[in-house]
Each structure stands twice: as structure tokens, then as C-alpha cells.
Amino acid sequence: MCEHKKGRTLDFTADEREDGLDVGSMLRQRGISKRLITKLKRCENGIMLNGSHIRTIDKVRKGDCLSVYLEDSRSLEANADINVPVVYEDEDVVVFDKPVNMPVHPSIKHQGDTLGNCFSAMYPDLTFRPINRLDRDTSGLCAVAKNAHSANVLQGTLKKVYYAAVCGKIEKDGQIDAPIGRVGDSIIKREVRPDGQRAVTDYTIIKGNEKYTLLRIILQTGRTHQIRVHFSHIGHPLAGDDFYGGDVSNITAQALHCGELEFQSPVTKETVKVTSPVRNDIEGLFL
Asked: Under CATH, which number does the domain 160-257 receive?
């Protein structure tokens, strides 16, 4: 039996199409996953109908109010000394503007200096559930779900736009369609290889000079290091990305920034658009 802590309550009013459905079916139609429904069934008052306890096999009628309580708990060590700007927040999602040189998740080498540790300090009763993950040296917008329902609904739905400064002069807009796989036995490094997974990157030119080109990039697929690998493959590695052959003489961190996010609110269904300006060190390559 679950003891209630801080969490999020979602209320759903049954409409004509849901009249006569069982509770479980209505919740699944409203985007609540089977896994979460199973968890809610174990919690006292996890699922309520018109203010009273209800079973998932019981029926709902038009106008009934079905409520679910999304309990949560902190999953990572809190570090209140980390300050990451919040550019958007509602009851279900928070979007951070992550700086360079900050991992999203803790690892062996990074135990208390991550976005997750910052999140845990800001929301001590919530589990850290990032929807899009950025490399340590990639800056920009990172969305985090505040509950399991939002994480489930938003997974794979975010529309992202990246900005990157690549080495060399690119003459026209284009698309890179080249499969990506691991380099040998490496856990981290990737390369374009025939037996890799299909990866597609679209790019348009914003501006450039003789040494660098600033691009607006949209990914059709989401492979590890996709942008970095693809542009290295065509002879234009990211500036500052020495791991994939980029020039580090004018910038010390990879010139890659997630500058736009768009998603539909998991509860209100309203469209949310968030932007973040390109970093000064990237813009400085074109002064």
C-alpha cells in the first residue's frame, strides 16, 4: 500500500465516447500507460471516481470525474550549488537551458555535478526523468518530465532544432543519409558504417565565412552522436569537437546547441514552443 507524498493529481471527466467504459480502458485512452495503471492500483486512493475509491474493472458514466494520483520520490543526490536556468515550467514539464561541460545524468566521473543533481535540489520529491538527452559538451534546451505519465506521453514526441558551427565552408543546404554504428569495441565512439542504423540529418545554412559555417539542423532519426558523426563524415566536423576531428583553435567546447523545442502538453494538449539563443562562443566564430 502506498503512502501519499507530494505528487500530481490528474482529473479526467468522462465524455460521451467513454460512457460505459471500464476505468482501466478510459485511463488508457487518456494516455495513462498500463504500467502506471498497475502501480496506481497498488496505492490507496491512487484511482478515484467522483471522490471515492474505484476499481479498474468498474464502469464510468458520462460526466464522472476520474482522478489519478501520481506519487513520486527523489531519485538522485541533490546539489543546491548548481544553478541551471529554467526557460519553461508547468505542472508536468520543466525545460532547462543546460550549459556546456555539464552531463545530464550522473556517471562514474560525474557524481554530483549533473543536471539531474540540480533537478533533485529544485524538486526534492520528484524523480528525474529527462525527455531529451544532450551530450556533456552540447548546450541548450533539455526537457524533464515531472511525473511518470508526462514522461510516457512525451517520449519521442519532442520536435528539436539544433544549431552547429562546422569547420569549413558549406555551399548549400542538404541532407545526410548515412547509417551509424559503433567504432569497433568502443562504448562511446560512433562512425558511418554499412551495418549501422539508418540516420538522417537535414541542415540549412544560416551564415558562414571562410573557416566556419553556422547551420540549423533537424534530425529525422536520433542516433548517438548523430550530428557530430555525420558532419565529420562529410568533411565538416563540428568546431571544438576534437573527438571527431574538429578544429579547437577558436573554441574549446563543441559548437552544438539545442536552440528550439516544441511539444504538446501531456495534459492540456496545448502546443509549447521554447527557444534558447545560440551561445556567445559559437557566435564569436563569425565576428
From this structure: 3.30.2350.10
**At a CB cut-off of 8 Å and minimum separation 6, what does 227 contact?**
162, 164, 201, 217, 219, 238, 256
pLDDT in tens, 94-136: 999 999 999 998 877 777 899 999 999 999 889 999 999 899 9
Q: Is the dihedral of CA 49, 53, 55, 56 positive or negative?
A: positive
Choices 3.40.109.10, 3.10.290.10, 1.10.10.10, 3.40.50.1000: CATH for 7-71: 3.10.290.10
Q: H or E segment at 153?
A: helix 148-154
256-264 vs 139-145, strand pairing mode: parallel
Tell me which residues are annotated as active site: 135
- pTM equals 0.80
State the pairing for strand pair 174-177/200-208.
Answer: antiparallel
> 73-157, superfamily in CATH?
Pseudouridine synthase (3.30.2350.10)
CB contact set of 82 (below 8 Å; sequence gap of 6+): 102, 113, 117, 118, 121
pLDDT in tens, 155-200: 889 999 999 999 999 999 999 999 999 999 888 999 999 999 999 9
